[in-house]
Amino acid sequence: MLSLVEQFLKLKPPKFTGAGDPEAAALWIQGLEKAFALLMCSETEKVVLAVYQLEGVASTWWRTTQGAIFPEGVAPEWNAFVEAFNGKYFSETAREMKMAEFQRLCQGSMTVDQYEAKFAELSQYAPELVENPANRVRRFRDGLRPELRSPLILLNLRNYNELYERVQMIERDQNDRAASFGSRFNSCGDNIRQGKRLIFGNRFQGPPSKKGGFNRSEPNQIDGCRFCGRQHGSAPCFPRTRVCYECRQHGHLAKDCPQRQMGQQQLPPSPQMGQNQGLLQLIAQQDGPFRPPAQGRTYAITDGKDKGKALQIEHH
């Protein structure tokens, strides 16, 4: 027996003080049973070793209860000890609470592995709910998050281990996709912080505006055309294409326009026009083509009867 105790203590079995959550009592029993299975202990040896691990109020409870559980001449049995122990530290009410917790169990924010561990832990308090393999599979599947549960419904798996393995694969694939998307998003964010333009299809997007979103790449309306300095938007640049502002013909500029020169020869500019010629040229360069107002002309109409009379018509 001494050798058995030494081997038992080398396994560092858990102790029980009788304080804490009722679940601690169930975990203590489970820990001991693992050690007992390894050492292949008999029923009596199990009780002796378990009592050795009781401390505090739990040890006091056993000293006052031992005679009622195992009267003199009755050999200790492990199942009788466990029943008495659970009656004290893991009551029927506590087991019902654990069963209700199992029935409400959902994955939530847990990983698949964490959810499966919790499912296995709580299912031992409701063995009648998972005795049927099909019921066990259904309860585990129904507690998963929707994005993991939906693909499994189509597969209609009936083996618990196969279901668990398949949902692990689905979760891993979704995590990889999320990580890949996050990497691309972070790359876009770095470009935005550096003021770089983003390309979507064949369109360029500028950095985000103060109001949110992206600024579209548009012609610079403040600086004007890079060639002539004027603001003509999307219209063609006449100086660049050598189109005359005056007659809209190619090959010469407005200052060399033959039509303007012909008009100047036929109608000499008035003193006032001469004074404003520089201003008119400046306006023509800034606001597009400008034509000076036409000079009035006078026509005389006479008849054969009265050559001395004339009707003047002023034409503008």
UniProtKB/TrEMBL annotation:
One of its GO terms (molecular function) is zinc ion binding. Pfam families: Retrotrans_gag, zf-CCHC. Keywords: Metal-binding, Zinc, Zinc-finger. SUPFAM superfamilies: Retrovirus zinc finger-like domains. Residues 287-316 are annotated as: Disordered. Residues 244-259 form the CCHC-type domain. Residues 303-316 have a biased composition (Basic and acidic residues). Gene3D superfamilies: Zinc finger, CCHC-type. This is CCHC-type domain-containing protein.
